[in-house]
Design brief:
homodimer, alpha+beta, BirA Bifunctional Protein, domain 2, Rossmann fold, five-stranded mixed sheet
Chain lengths: 479, 479
């Protein structure tokens, strides 16, 4: 048992140092590695397989709504980036610039895309002529670059993987509908697949995307009580269309500007999975996203029939559609158990000679560590059931944690007390002025996370300035 | 019929101007679009959907051989690129350089990866310690940049999409085995899925990859008789391992260098599909790779029952696993036929009131234009059969064209005559000296495509210099 104890002891406890616990997990579960390129990371097989599952499932959901995938260049000429004023102001300070191609200096420098609104607009301005060309519902999976000063694996890195959807519509209503549809697609993906409950709402003007008319967001609460913006959907109105001249002739033969949206999700979702579900033994992957859902660990594998039985179990589970592996290595069972827990594989299945005598095996859930005796004949029925139960339980556990760490502030003292002493979301009223947001940022390092769709009337005035309240806002400290 | 005639007339005939025909197809079939970024292109939905099918099918084949996907940074520090001498000499002249991050100049400039050997080596040098860590079988799907002077859609562009596999092994034998395994994976993918026959062989030293010990290639012949290098697999021996210090302790506790391979395939495969199968009416997609395999075109759709019948056919075909769409737009049938041909959809299914009276429909093959009367009750059985037949026929047609354009040169005059007057592959003997390759390049603008695995003894001497022959080589003009 020495090996597996060592493996576990090397993880810092989350209560001692959450940031170090996080870093330990991403390294020990072999999700990422640092590289010679400052601020950039290697996504290793265990991490990339999670991203592939996220991609497959999201991509399927996008396509069901009519979205088509495309690929646009990774470079944006400086003059193109500058076409929309707010947009360039938001992004220019954090882009990487290519100045030389081969041995020659470039005539115009190119930035490595931090996001591709300008390229999509350039394409749409050439491709859209008539109302028959609308809507355009494009998405691309790619990597983008933002020259961040401080970086953290998955959460903030100079290069990250994401998808960016960009749509163009005939009317403002259609654009707003698409913006909300994609926000809901993100929210249900997080809840159904990643077992992460979210708060849906609108960003304040201070926090919205550079160039957007409205930004909608899903906000999730991590185990340490910090918020993570987990996906955003923007309604651009016709601002980009006017800057780029994207016009179509409507049914009455009149020229009109299109209305646009964009929406994105990134590899930071993997950070969310770690920080919502993980514990001091390692990662905990929700079954629906886990690359390996079950690992079979033969006990006393040299005894007659044990490996054959493991192979039979594996075949039965595969036939039932379970992503299963058998660990036949010569490591000790204890080490294998610790490894399964570290890697967050939803269930392990132990079976040795004594179990075989009783025609049974032991299924151990990663989340509760519950041991469930399962008759071998029922394995292919019971394991999918256990995984489904676990998926639901993980969502409920995360929701209970989130709810237990969501507070209500009726006045300034309560708001300050909570922001200082109770990590979590704080619901409070807001007058709508950015000055109050700036003050909260200054005194408590917290930000408005969103104006939630589900509004409550906590008080009549803004607890910060005392002026009449316009909205209820979720406040919090965020990644 | 005016509309569809116009659509077709806008394609230049391939016999008049093959290059223009190619450009017309990629534009008219809406595979790509040019952009504001010189030498870079937009891959549009119809093109990207082909790439997604290529990815899915290749990725599945890779994973069956134990390959795992990862993602490495898009940037390479200049000092890292320089670690392997041949490699940097091969790539430095054609990379794009990032010199500024945000508002600051970088301390060390970064190139945008033209390929990722150096990054994989950097990772392996940290991750590989013991023989238990081997083999490493990693692959990544990403975009790479090479600052080409002249570009053509799919065939040569400054940025392109590809996969790059990078493996590390304990022994030279294992590395060689993996190199050949991946070459064979590529070859069977092209033949089985893309219906493109290939010649497998080894590159000469002049043509091999910068830093490789041996490069293997699959070479395909395009309709105009030019060759297209369609996939390469490299055995690096321990050259990179020595440059990067990638060592492991073997079972006897002795330090050893690993042996490495890399192998890649790119979006140029889409160019190969166009140039092997296309005709003057447009694209011809092999059924196994076609995003849409069948399009139902209702004839006289306003007549009672026609649209309902089309919907029933679509449902039956979908249930049979066919990727099918119905074109219910108000375009004329003739326009829809021309569009199906332009886009290369393998079969169209016509059905109007008269067909319905006879309980039948007409299935028209894109490749032969053969019209096949199919009883509606048998549709879900017959269409998959027709698609399978078509897949096989397209491979045989391409093979017949390739064979008819593969010539044998017994002496210098024959070699020159063929290279000048008969576009295609030329088989001829070779002494093994680069001087003879250089001469052929100079006088006939042709290159050695490969030393094929299937050798023939055409003559005893090299037709170029008269010295004893070592190998038979395929020569040709190439993209």
């Amino acid at each position: 048992m020495a090996d597996n104890k060592k493996m576990v002891e090397e993880i810092t406890s989350m209560d001692v140092d959450f940031a170090q616990w996080y870093t330990d997990i991403v390294k020990k579960a072999e999700l990422i590695d640092y590289t010679s390129v400052k601020g950039c990371m290697v996504i290793k097989p265990a991490g990339y397989a999670i991203w592939e599952n996220i991609q497959n499932e999201l991509d399927r959901r996008f396509k069901e709504t009519g979205v088509e995938n495309v690929y646009l260049p990774m470079f944006i000429p400086e003059s193109l980036l500058q076409k929309e004023k707010d947009h360039v102001e938001g992004f220019a300070p954090e882009v990487a610039w290519v100045t030389h191609g081969g041995l020659e200096p470039l005539q115009e420098r190119l930035c490595v895309r931090p996001t591709s609104e300008t390229l999509f607009c350039d394409l749409y301005s050439k491709d859209i002529h008539s109302h028959r060309d609308l809507p355009k519902l494009y998405n691309q999976w790619c990597s983008v670059v933002r020259w961040e000063k401080t970086t953290r694996p998955f959460l903030r890195s100079r290069e990250f993987l994401w998808q960016e959807g960009h749509t163009a519509h005939a009317t403002a209503e259609e654009a707003e509908e698409r913006t909300i549809l994609m926000l809901n697609t993100y929210a249900s993906f997080l809840e159904d697949v990643l077992a992460i409950p979210v708060v849906k709402g609108r960003k304040t003007d201070k926090e919205k995307f550079a160039g957007a008319e409205a930004t909608y967001t899903i906000e999730a609460l991590m185990h340490d009580g910090k918020a993570l913006q987990s996906g955003t959907s923007h309604n651009f109105g016709d601002g980009f269309a006017k800057a780029f001249g994207i016009q179509y002739t409507d049914k009455n033969n009149k020229l009109q500007y299109v209305h646009q949206t964009s929406w994105g999700m990134t590899t930071r979702l993997i950070g969310a999975i770690i920080m919502v579900h993980g514990d001091d033994s390692g990662l905990k992957l929700p079954p629906r996203i886990a690359p390996t859902q079950a690992v079979i660990i033969p006990i006393m594998p040299k005894k007659e029939g044990v490996l054959e039985n493991a192979a039979k179990m594996e075949a039965a589970l595969k036939a039932a559609g379970i992503r299963v592996k058998t660990d036949n290595s010569d490591k000790s069972p204890g080490f294998k158990f610790a490894e399964q827990e570290m890697r967050g594989i939803p269930v392990r299945i132990e079976c040795g000679p004594k179990d075989m005598e009783k025609n049974q095996c032991v299924v151990v859930r990663r989340d509760t560590r519950e041991k469930i005796i399962v008759c071998l004949d029922e394995l292919a029925v019971k394991v999918p059931e256990i995984l489904e139960t676990m998926q639901k339980d993980m969502l409920e556990t995360a929701r209970a944690h989130r709810d237990a760490h969501t507070y209500t502030a009726h006045n300034y003292e309560e708001l300050m007390d909570i922001l200082e002493n109770k990590p979590g979301f704080v619901k409070a009223m807001w007058c709508g002025d950015q000055a109050c947001e700036d003050k909260i940022k200054e005194v408590a390092s917290a930000t408005s996370r969103c104006i939630p769709f589900e509004q409550e009337q906590i008080s009549d005035v803004c607890p910060i300035c005392g002026k009449p309240a316009k909205h209820m806002v979720y406040w919090g400290k965020a990644y």
